[in-house]
Structure formats: C-alpha cells, structure tokens
Design goal:
This protein is mostly beta strands. The chain has no helices and 24 strands. It has a four-stranded antiparallel β-sheet with strand order 1-2-3-4, with no helix packed on it. It has a four-stranded antiparallel β-sheet with strand order 5-6-7-8, with no helix packed on it. This is WD repeat-containing protein WRAP73-like.
Length: about 290
C-alpha cells in the first residue's frame, strides 16, 4: 500500500524541483513557496511568502538555501524595484533580499560555494556577484549575451566570462573566493559564442579554456589560463557553418566539438588533433513500444 502526501497546488509546475541532496522538494505557488521534507510524515517542512510572483527558483548546491525571484519582463510588482530573495532551510527566520534597482533582473544563479549569488541585468550590461556572508559586491561590467559565456571551473575555484571591450572579445578569469581578477586577455574570435573549462588531462584541476566563435565561422581556440594559445580549429571549408558547442570528457583527455553542420568532432588533448568525426542525423529514428 502506498502512502501519499497532502496535495499542493502550483501555478508554475515547471519550477517544482528537488534539492541537490534529494531531501527537500520546492513547490512555488504564486508568491508562496512551500518546502516539503521527504523524511517527515506531514511532508510540509516550511513555507515562505515572497515579494512577488515566483518565476525564478534555484537551490544552492549544498541544499541549505534556495533563491526566488521574478525577471523584470514578467514582474507584477513595482517595476523600479526588482529583487531576488534568498531563504535558509536550516534557519527559516533568516532571509536575504537583494534589491536590483532600475537595472532590472534577467536571471540569477548560485556560485558553487553556495554563499554567493550572481545576477544579470535586464539589458545584460553587468553581472553582479553578491556575498551572503559579508555583503560584499563584485561586478563583471561587459558580459557578452551569448548563453554560454559564463562558466565556473569544475573545481569551483575560478569563474571565466566572455566580455566585449572596445569592440573586441576578451576572456576574463576571476578567483572564486576573493573575486579578484586573475587574468584578462583579448581573443582571436570575431564574435565569441561560448566557452568550456577543461582540466588538461589532470582530472579535477582546471587549466584550459576552449572558446568558440559564432555560427558565421568555424573557429575554436584553446587557451591556457595565462592567455597563451595552445591550439585552434578554424578555417576548414569542409567543416562549414560554425561551432554549436563543445564539452570536455570527464578525464580531460578529449574535447568533443559539435558543429552546425550536424557533425561531432573529437579532439585529443595529447596532440590537439581531430581524432574522430561522427555525423549526427537531423532526424532521430526509433521504435516505440510497451517495453
């Protein structure tokens, strides 16, 4: 016999999500947030009343906090006062409200340490890093609006961001504890579209960054953290179109490059050569059945 919890309504069911540790379930409903505990019989752990309707919700990596917010484009509250709210699971009486002012809010996310929140302005003019520990603030002033232009290293020690400075692409690397600038250097791209950290064959240690150009040019360059170019893949007419995305293998020994020409190419860390190429059919065929 199965036991079911009390039903909760939610007007944004797509935001319902489990905490990373799998214990808590966050259920937003208009401007209310219900936290359900999978280990208790009553199931309802706590609830919060937010400043505005919840359109943005994200757990901290350590499952101890959760942030809510409403992007400026969908805000029903005072347009001049968008905010992000952070709630503590272990201390329900504690909360933090980050006022964003006239710059507005496009999105918000957590840093890997679960003690910093990153917010992006509505017009993508600035990314602000807010500390929940000492209330300090750091900024990335010229971020590119390209979807894959901001990424933490796998060990959480560094943050890399694509910036547009004086009409030229730059890569900025920040240390993720002090948020001090580690390195900033110009890129060879004409319109950088994304980046991906790699560990260079040494699992767990981020040392290499792959940066690729927009759809207009098949151009991917590998950089060391000091800004030195390690290798590049570009200008091959047979490749055509541009790079859609790239991802490192868990060991850091291979980089898989996906192109808009529907092909995957595998680059070896040892030689920086393309060692394999696979075509991806635009139509995925398969059988459906009862199994």
């Amino acid at each position: 016999m199965m036991n079911f919890s009390v039903a909760f309504s939610s007007n944004v069911a797509n935001l319902v999500c489990w905490s990373p540790d799998g214990r808590y379930l966050a259920v937003p409903d208009n401007n209310k947030l219900y936290i359900k505990d999978s280990l208790t019989a009553s199931n309802l752990f706590t609830s919060y009343v937010c400043y505005d309707f919840i359109k943005l919700l994200q757990w901290s990596p350590d499952s101890s906090m959760i942030l809510t917010g409403t992007p400026s484009s969908s805000s029903t509250a005072t347009a001049e006062c968008p905010c992000v709210e952070v709630w503590s699971i272990n201390n329900p009486d504690w909360r933090c409200r980050i006022q964003l002012g006239s710059a507005g809010l496009l999105t918000a996310s957590w840093a890997p340490d679960s003690r910093h929140v990153l917010t992006t302005d509505l017009l993508h003019l600035r990314i602000t890093i807010w500390s929940l520990v000492n209330k300090s603030v750091a900024c990335i002033k010229n971020p590119k609006d390209c979807g894959q232009g901001l990424q933490f290293s796998s060990d959480g020690c560094y943050l890399a961001a694509l910036e547009r400075i004086d009409c030229k692409d730059h890569l900025t690397i920040l240390e993720a504890k002090s948020w001090q600038l580690v390195k900033q250097f110009p890129l060879s791209t004409s319109d950088a579209a994304g980046l991906a950290w790699g560990c260079g064959g040494d699992a767990g240690t981020a040392t290499i960054i792959a940066v690729w150009d927009s759809i207009l040019a098949y151009n991917l360059t590998l950089y060391a953290m000091c800004g030195r170019v390690l290798s590049s893949v570009c200008g091959a007419e047979s490749y055509g179109h541009g790079v859609r995305g790239a991802a490192w293998s868990p060991t850091g020994k291979h980089l898989v490059i996906g192109g808009h020409d529907t092909k995957l190419r595998v680059m070896s860390y040892m030689t920086w050569d393309i060692t394999s190429e696979r075509a991806h059919s635009p139509i995925i065929e398969g059988k459906t059945g009862s199994n």
